[in-house]
Amino acid sequence: KTRIQFGRPIGVNQAIKHMCSDMSVRTEAAFTQVCFAAVCLASGRHDALAQALAARTVAANAATDNGATGIHIHGGMGYTYEHNAHLYLERAHVYRHLFAEPSEVLAELLAQDLTREGVAA
User: Fold this and answer.
1) 11 found inside a domain
2) What is the pLDDT of residues 92-118, one digit of tens each?
3) What is the CATH number of the domain that holds 70?
4) How many domains does the chain have?
5) Which helix (H) or strand (E) holds 50?
6) How far, in Å, CA of 11 to CA of 42, rounded?
7) pTM for the complete prediction?
């Protein structure tokens, strides 16, 4: 379904195209990081846990940013129950809190790196 605003589809507006391309880039970056983390875990690399934590952080940020951008693109319709845009943002926030905040993940990752290098006792 194509949303029409002021007599034309919103997808013809350049600003909307930029937001959609940003969402695509964030999604692809998260997917690539998750795949790389899976390869690291499967091959037993020493940095597999760090890659998995990084994947969780990148995916959480992409999900919440893309959900918010989707609502922004849809305007007031994104907040209503007539459209599913609000569901994606709600799910992203729930998953983000279930699987730890990205700042907590990064702190854990930094602590592991410092411990491995012998900086922390």
Assistant:
1) yes
2) 989 888 876 767 777 777 777 767 766
3) 1.20.140.10
4) 1
5) helix 48-74
6) 41
7) 0.75
